[in-house]
Write a structure and sequence with these properties.
With about 130 residues, this protein is α+β, with helices and mostly antiparallel strands. The protein has one domain. Helix content is about 50%, strand content about 20%. The chain contains 2 helices and 3 strands, in the order ααβββ. Strands 1-2-3 form a 3-stranded antiparallel β-sheet, with helices on one face. Strand 1 and strand 2 form a beta hairpin. Helix 1 packs antiparallel against helix 2. The N and C termini lie far apart (about 90 Å).
Length: about 130
């Protein structure tokens, strides 16, 4: 029975392989993190648009809709834009458009990708 002892070349080879693989894995994880942050903002924007649309059904005032939309989520208010249009009378349709500029702040990845513009549009019937 022959026992082979790992030589120095085997240890050096695995060190080089790890040194080459770790940066690639880290960049992939950062990309996944950035995508998940944008998806989180998209889901929050949908919730904000729904809250704004519920408010617009009662009173289609832009400031009230903005307050309802921004109060629903933790989205930054300075990046949130709301527009309300349509028939303000009873039984009229009101369109609420909520837009958000999602920041790409994750290190290394965010500097290569600009901020992502997200938008939700809901049409509701006034009560």
């Amino acid at each position: 029975m022959t026992v082979r002892v790992r030589g120095r070349s085997d240890i050096g080879q695995s060190t080089v392989e790890i040194a080459l693989a770790v940066p690639i894995v880290v960049v992939i994880l950062l990309v996944v993190l950035q995508v998940s942050v944008v998806v989180r903002d998209a889901v929050a924007l949908t919730a904000a648009a729904r809250a704004g649309a519920r408010r617009a059904m009662v009173a289609p005032d832009r400031s009230a809709v903005l307050a309802a939309a921004s109060g629903e989520t933790r989205l930054r208010r300075e990046r949130l834009r709301v527009s309300v249009s349509g028939d303000p009378g009873p039984d009229g349709f009101v369109t609420v458009v909520v837009s958000y500029r999602s920041p790409t702040d994750v290190p290394f990845v965010g500097s290569f990708v600009g901020d992502v513009d997200l938008s939700e549009r809901l049409v509701v019937l006034r009560e």
